[in-house]
Amino acid sequence: MTKVLIATEKPFAAAAIEGIKKINAEAGFETILLEKYTDPNDLVKAVADVDALIIRSDKATRQVIEAGKNLKIIVRAGAGFDNIDLAAATEKGIVAMNTPGQNSNAVAELTFGMLVFMARDNFKGGSGTELKGKKLGIHAYGNVGKNVARIAKGFSMEVYAFDPFVSKEIIEKDGVTVVNTVEELYSTCQYISLNIPATEKTKKSINFELLSKMPKGATVINTARKEVIDEEGLKKFFVERPDFKYVSDIAPDCNSELLQFGNRCYSTPKKQGAETSEANINAGLAAANQIVKFIKNGDRTCQVNK
Ligand code: 3PG
Question: According to the model, what pLDDT value does residue 256 have?
Fold first, then answer.
C-alpha cells in the first residue's frame, strides 16, 4: 500500500488533515502523521518506508532524502521550496513539487495587517499615518505579489512592481505600474513588500545600498525569507535613517540587536503568513491531490526539480 507521510513541525489545521486523509483513503493510500516534532531525526526515521512526503517549512535535507528508501515524491505544501535539497532529490530520482498560489492570499492579508500595525505606532496609541495615496512597491510579482496588489488597491495605494520574470502586460493588466529596475522600485516607493524567493541570487540582496534609495518614512515588509536580507546592512540602515521601519514575518529577523530600534522593528514570534485554516486546507489538499495524480498517472505538474 502506498504510504503518505505528513511531516509538519508546525501542524496543519485539523480540517486540512481530515481532507488529506480522505483523499488518501479514496486513492487506497495510507496516511502517516508526524506533527510538532522537535528533533530532525524523527523525520529521518519516519520517512524510512514511505512513498510520498508532504511538508511545510520542514527541512527535506539530503539525510532525510537518502533515508527515504521508497520515497518517490516530496510535496512542499506551500510556495517556497528552499527547504528541499533539490540536488539530492534529483540524484535519487525523487520528484519535488510545491503547491503554487494555495496560501498566497493568507500571506498577502498578513502583509496589510503588519503594514497597518507599523503605520499606526504598533497600536500603542501614538499618531500614525494612513496608507491611502502612498506608494507601495511589490518586489516580485508572483502569486503573493498579485494578491498584495489587489488588496493595496482597496487601500487606495499607488502600486508599483518589479519582476524581470513576469511580463509587463500581465502586471499592467492589474493596474500596477511596472518599473524596470529594482533600484527604481526602492527609490520610488515608501513601502516595499518583499515577495522574492530565497535563491543563491537573492540571498542578502536587500542590502544597505538598496535600502538607502528609499524615500523618507520608508517601511519594508518581509513576508518572504530571512535569507534575502543582509542583516548587517539592515542594522546599519536603522542607525542611519531614524525614519525607517522594518516588519518581518520571519522570526528571528528582529534579533536582540535589531530590537533596540523599538517600535521601528517588529517580527512575528513564529512565521504565520500561511497560518490560516483556509491556506492549510488549500495547500494541504492540493499536495495530497498532486501525490495521487503523480502516483496513479505520473502527472508531474508543479514539479520544481525538472
Ligand atoms: C511558503 O513558502 O509557502 C510560506 O513561507 C509558508 O510556509 P509555512 O507553510 O511553513 O507556513
Answer: 60
Q: Which three cell numbers stand for residue 229?
A: 536580507
Q: Say which CATH topology domain 3-102+275-297 has.
A: Rossmann fold (3.40.50)
Whether 271 is in the pocket of ligand 1, judged by its Cβ within 6 Å, is: yes
Whole-prediction pTM: 0.96
Q: Which of 75, 84, 103, 268 to mutate to test the pocket of ligand 1 (most atoms within 8 A of CB)?
A: 103
Q: Which residues contact 289 (CB under 8 A, 6 or more apart)?
A: 23
Antiparallel, parallel or unpaired: β 73-76 and 135-139 = unpaired
Can you tell me the mean pLDDT for 10-17? Answer: 98
Which CATH number describes the domain made up of 104-267? 3.40.50.720
Q: What is the pLDDT of residue 189?
A: 98
Residue bearing the CA closest to ligand 1, atom 11:
274
Report the distance separating Cα 151 and Cα 166, nearest Å.
Answer: 19
Query: Is the fold of 3-102+275-297 the same as that of 104-267?
Result: yes
- Cβ–Cβ under 8 Å, residues 99 and 302: yes
Decide: 78 in ligand 1 pocket, CB within 6 A.
yes
Distance 8 CA to ligand 1 centre (A): 11
> Structural domain boundaries of the chain?
3-102+275-297, 104-267
3-state secondary structure of 244: coil
Give residue 255's pLDDT: 57
Give yes or no for residue 98 CB within 6 A of ligand 1. no
Chain segment 42-83, per-residue pLDDT in tens:
999 999 999 999 999 999 999 999 999 999 999 999 999 999
Mean pLDDT of 105-116: 98
198, 222 Cβ separation under 8 angstroms: no
Confidence class for position 25, pLDDT limits 50, 70, 90: very high
